[in-house]
Amino acid sequence: MSFGSGPTPPAERAALRRLYQRHPELAGIERAAGPLPWRERRPGFGALLRAVVAQQISTHAAGAIWNRTIALLPDPEPEAQAFLRLTDAALRGAGFSARKVEYARGLADAIVARRLDLDALATMPDDEAIGAISALRGFGRWSGEIYLLFALRRRDVFPADDLALAASYQLFHGLKGRPPPKALRAAVEPWAPYRGLAARLLWHHYHHVTRKDGIGR
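RE: above sequence
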């Protein structure tokens, strides 16, 4: 999954300092790996569509499918109505599986029909917004959390189902095994209300240690 990236915004840098005051061990990630790159996406259909594309495949493969899909559309920031005009054959040619075609069309249709109100998501509490997204066929909690974290800049969302996050937590704490999602959610509770920032740090740590762009399942 590719992201626009830049320096950490001042408000988020201030929040990171508060996180480091409470949990100074996390500051070691930036000391070792360098400044945290701030990754975000424009809120909207495109950010959710990317979550569909990225499910269960590598970052490299997801990026290739995304680029081929964008080439089929009139705008680099795709709109739901334009996406619905693409044929199944075109989407399969871009690399979508039959199941992902179904999920992506369901997403676009829900937005066009206003069953999913993208503007309302921005004002909903975290759990409510995640629930609205994960109610869509093919979308789970991970997809909702990724959208909140990178499109809506929510600071306390931790996608514990993400394999790279679990692997990074294991590496960071020197654990023998990778913690399962339920255990990982419990383990990161002390990082509230900055669990989203901690997740960003762990991805940064994972990339530094493994030299991989590790956001995804």
